[in-house]
Write a structure and sequence with these properties.
Elements: H1 17-37, H2 42-62, H3 65-74, H4 78-85, H5 87-99, H6 107-127, E1 131-135, H7 142-145, E2 149-154, H8 157-163, E3 174-178, E4 181-187, H9 195-198, H10 203-214, E5 218-222, E6 229-233, E7 236-238, H11 243-254, H12 259-267, H13 274-279, H14 281-284
Parallel strand pairs: 1-3
Antiparallel strand pairs: 1-5, 2-4, 3-4, 5-6, 6-7
């Protein structure tokens, strides 16, 4: 009967709690490094360095002394060359690590995300460009993300305005933001069947209300007819809100506040908005005639 020879592995130290923490930290650093270089020219440079390392190993194995000597002579200067070549990328990478913790989104990025969305909504409201932006909270929206076009892009006012530009390929449907990224555009959302709201709202507003009924997300709607901004969260919708109100609610969203702190103002809007919601209920009926 065949017998397997023991593998010539060195004696491994025991796995202690300190060693496990060390492994997790190193894995997290490697993951963050891969996120930083993903999609950048640094990936190709690292691949080139890997090829050179492979050539060096072959030279050592095949006893190609001249090639091995040349590569060994150039190796000490490689880190300096990389620093000179990628000084801008390294500066951005260090800044990103300093402003973004390993878990979640940093406070600076939260503020920037809210400001970018508010600026885009303000511009589209001024131009009367219909829009529907959904911001994910604790309940995932993967099912609805898969119904649209995958983007995975940074949140910016210019990109949001370009997506909802009339006549564009992605202007029909909703934009879904997960974390600090625009995950997808032209997403299909469920329409609300609330009998008290169906007769008052257009398609885009019903879609915002429908997705808020199925998850804890926040939906921002810009009416194509009137340019008014609406907010939907936890099955409630507030019509004709100010940009300050949008930024306030988005900040609550990113901070993961308690449901009641967000939903209560929507159910009971400020007195300044109450008359507006009633007086302008008729135009809202036609504000979402375009598809969500």
């Amino acid at each position: 009967m065949a017998r397997f020879l023991p593998l010539p592995l060195p004696d491994l130290p025991p796995l202690t709690l300190t060693a496990a923490i060390d492994i997790v930290i190193v894995a997290a650093l490697i993951y963050q490094f891969l996120l930083i270089i993903r999609g950048r020219r640094a990936v190709h440079v690292l691949m080139g360095l890997g090829v050179l390392a492979l050539i060096y190993a072959v030279a050592v194995w095949a006893k190609l002394d001249l090639l091995r000597t040349i590569l060994a002579t150039l190796a000490p200067y490689t880190p300096i060359a990389l620093i000179v070549m990628f000084q801008a990328e390294l500066r951005r990478a260090l800044a990103r690590l300093g402003r973004r913790p390993f878990l979640g989104v940093s406070q600076i990025e939260r503020r920037e995300l809210s400001q970018e969305v508010v600026l885009a909504v303000g511009r589209m409201s001024l131009n009367k460009t219909g829009a529907l932006i959904v911001l994910e909270r604790k309940i995932g929206l993967r099912t609805f993300v898969e119904s649209g076009v995958n983007l995975d892009a940074s949140v910016s006012r210019d990109l949001l305005c370009s997506i909802f530009h009339p006549g564009g390929a992605l202007h029909d449907g909703a934009v879904i933001i997960q974390g600090d990224r625009i995950t997808a555009a032209a997403c299909f959302l469920p329409l609300s069947t609330n009998p008290l709201r169906v007769s008052e709202l257009g398609t885009r507003h019903r879609a915002a209300l429908g997705i808020s009924e199925e998850s804890d997300c926040i939906a921002v709607v810009v009416s194509e007819e009137t340019g008014k901004v609406s907010l939907a969260a936890f099955g409630e919708i507030e019509i004709d809100v100010s940009l300050e109100r949008v930024e306030q609610l988005l900040s609550d969203r990113v901070d993961h506040r308690d449901k009641r702190s967000v939903a209560a103002p929507l159910r009971h809007p400020a007195p300044a908005h109450q008359p507006t919601s009633v007086q302008h209920s008729s135009p809202v009926q036609h504000s979402g005639l375009d598809q969500p």
